[in-house]
Write a structure and sequence with these properties.
The chain is an alpha/beta fold and about 375 residues long. The chain has two domains: about 250 residues, Aldolase class I (TIM Barrel, Alpha-Beta Barrel); about 100 residues, no CATH class. It is about 45% helix and about 15% strand. It contains 14 helices and 13 strands. A nine-stranded mixed sheet has the order 6-5-4-3-2-1-10-11-12. Helix 4 packs across helix 5, helix 5 packs parallel to helix 6 and helix 8 runs parallel beside helix 12. The structure holds iron/sulfur cluster (2 copies). The site of one iron/sulfur cluster has 13 residues, from loops.
Length: about 375
């Protein structure tokens, strides 16, 4: 039985719906800097500058799927630092627009060190409708505060300002407040997205500093659940630190060099782990899968601010047999499809279900519609 605590407000649910329609495309792991906490292990030493698959073909597929309501409506170009390869960013964002898709990007803002140059760059990238800026205490050691201020100002002027993603930690109130003041000055004070810094060791495994350790994982759903295509073509179900788990694991939803985007989305929508994290978060997911697998996950402590540490340990410990058992459980898959319908209004998920799960889903369909009415009033 899937039980989820539903005490999360409608606005946050809406955010999950939007995130669910994003497709992350990592253009390269090359970055102008090397932040020690980088979850994609990007750095200036990476020599591969382009994805190892046909991105234009991928964009065509995305546009086709988007019309059917299954695929993404916004492509988010990430890295590494996507602004290091302006030609590529320009070409793919224009192509996305030509096919009727929105395009966005996430950057560390380095290109705004000079206002005039930054303005020229943004005019070349006019097909990007939203640009998010990542900054925090660590980034600011490499990218000066003035550059971030320039980037925010240029993005507000050009109408491309997305949000500032600021990973907060102890003793960084000064920088955080200053960023809030700049946003307020531009009348976009709501465009700050505080997140939590995930510390990684030299092997890319998350670690929890002593002062953040807690007895249980944070409650609430994960908002970073969206398919993300790595430069190699491997596709992950989240843009968090699971990218550092090598090889194939339960959150890998395919490889774009070997599968169509439709097949990837199908795996994404039918993956019970992904959907459990999306509707309930890692705390709920562990409860559900512990009952199902009769397995006791031995995670000695958790990070009180970020669910990712627990999530990483959970998938790292999972055997491929356990993963297969869950992923072939059609009743569970159907129940998650129902929950997605109720919580996010995602009706198309039912058509993607395998035949046996579809039968279960249709049985619950009327009930779910009633639940949806009750839920949304
Ligand atoms: S700026 Fe972002 S992509 Fe580049 S190293 Fe830092 S965290 Fe990684
Ligand atoms: S909680 Fe898990 S699924 Fe969500 S971003 Fe973190 S690692 Fe990824």
């Amino acid at each position: 039985m899937v039980e989820i605590h539903n005490d999360i407000d409608i606005e946050l649910r809406q955010l999950q719906v939007e995130k669910g329609r994003q497709l992350g495309i990592m253009l390269s792991r090359r970055c102008n800097i090397a932040c020690p906490q980088c979850i994609s292990r990007s750095s200036p030493h990476i020599t591969i500058k382009e994805p190892q698959y046909d991105v234009s073909g991928l964009i065509r597929q995305a546009a086709h799927l988007s019309k059917d309501g299954v695929g993404p409506n916004i492509l988010s170009f990430t890295g590494g630092e996507p602004f290091l390869n302006l030609k590529l960013l320009e070409r793919y964002s224009a192509l996305a627009n030509d096919y009727g898709l929105l395009a966005g990007a996430i950057t560390n803002g380095f290109w705004a060190s000079d206002l005039k140059r930054g303005k020229n760059i943004l005019s070349r990238l006019h097909c990007l409708c939203r640009i998010d800026v990542s900054t925090d205490f660590r980034h600011l050691q490499f990218i000066p505060f003035q550059t971030i201020e320039n980037a925010i100002s240029l993005l507000c002027d050009s109408g491309q300002m997305g949000e500032v993603r600021f990973a907060r930690q102890i003793n960084d109130e000064g920088a955080y407040n200053e960023i809030c003041e700049i946003l307020e000055k531009h009348d976009v004070s709501d465009r700050i997205h505080p997140s939590s810094l995930i510390y990684l060791d030299s092997k890319g495994c998350p670690v929890v500093p002593q002062y953040r350790r807690a007895d249980r994982a944070p409650l609430g759903p994960c908002f970073a659940i969206t398919p993300v295509i790595e430069p190699s073509g491997r596709v992950l179900g989240c843009c968090g630190c699971l990218g550092n788990l090598a090889g194939s694991h339960a959150m890998v939803v395919g490889d774009i060099t070997q599968a169509t985007l439709f097949e990837i989305y199908r795996s994404f929508h039918l993956n019970p782990f992904i959907q459990a994290l999306r509707v309930g978060g890692i705390y709920e997911a562990i409860n559900i899968f512990t009952t199902l697998l009769v397995h006791n996950w031995c995670i000695p402590w958790h990070d009180r601010e970020s669910p990712c540490f627990t999530c990483f340990q959970f998938f790292k410990c999972m055997s491929s047999e356990d993963a297969k058992l869950v992923m072939s459980n059609s009743t569970l898959i159907a129940r998650f499809a129902m929950l997605r319908f109720v919580l996010f209004g995602e009706e198309q998920g039912i058509d993607l279900l395998p035949t046996d799960a579809r039968a279960v889903a249709h049985l619950c369909f009327e009930t779910s519609q009633h639940m949806k009415q009750l839920w949304l009033g």
